[in-house]
Amino acid sequence: MPNQPNQPGHSGQQAQRRELGAFLRSRRERITPDQVGLPRSGRRRTPGLRREELALLAGISATWYTYLEQGRDIRASDQVLNALASVLRLDRYERGHLFQLAGHAPAADPEAPEPLAPEAAAVPLLLQPHPAYIIGGTYDVLSHNPAADELFPHLTAATDRPPNFLRWVFLEPAARDVLVDWEPEARGLLARLRTLAGRHPGDPRYTRLIDELKAGSPEVRSWWPQYEVQARQGGRKRLRHPGRGVIEYAYTAFHLAEQPEQTLVIYSDDQPRFRR
Prior knowledge:
Layout: H1 8-30, H2 51-58, H3 62-69, H4 78-87, H5 92-101, H6 118-121, H7 123-126, E1 132-135, E2 141-144, H8 146-151, H9 165-171, H10 174-178, H11 182-198, H12 204-216, H13 218-223, E3 235-241, E4 245-255, E5 263-268
Antiparallel strand pairs: 1-2, 1-5, 3-4, 4-5
Helix pairs in contact: 2-3, 2-4, 4-5, 9-12
């Protein structure tokens, strides 16, 4: 039943909306026009950006943003909140606070590694010598074993960010040698990314990854507009092992119970081999 004006929950929601407006106003006032590339035009009555300027930069209506800052009873989407957080240059803690005040789950920090429970991270090591790894929602490789390192060269090489299976397939030259049937495998992988991204509209983790893939891969630029979708699943694929040649692997995908977008992938090579 909706809260009525005389109910305790109603006053609590009003207070939270007022707090949201105050938080947005405080962060708007600390951003100067110079920081966002706007020219200075005469004297300003208030510090920082005007409401109209912030709304324009965030791609939303100035009237609607004014209502939000005034604590009116309106709801902002994740996409709008991400846009505001970006323009206001909020750090990870401020971004999470913004989402909480707006009544949403805390926003995912695009720079932070996806958390993985230690007991889950240990599973690929227990599966050695079968190649195994755990991937997150954006295909970051969260855990892997030595057999996976051997089968997928350069996938888990030390970098300043988590290794990512999508970046490896489309941007690492070695992937086209390892994946014997590279094009259908790559198309399927991109279709699965499209499916996952559709569940998280406006999530900067996905938009940044997609933009990076488009910039570096002509295939992604060509295939992405075709809007193919596909669920994560098991199957079979031919891979070129560095010491044993081309092998047909059966692979199985298990979704983690606590984090269903995290997936354990295990490869088995019990099937007959293909010659080079």
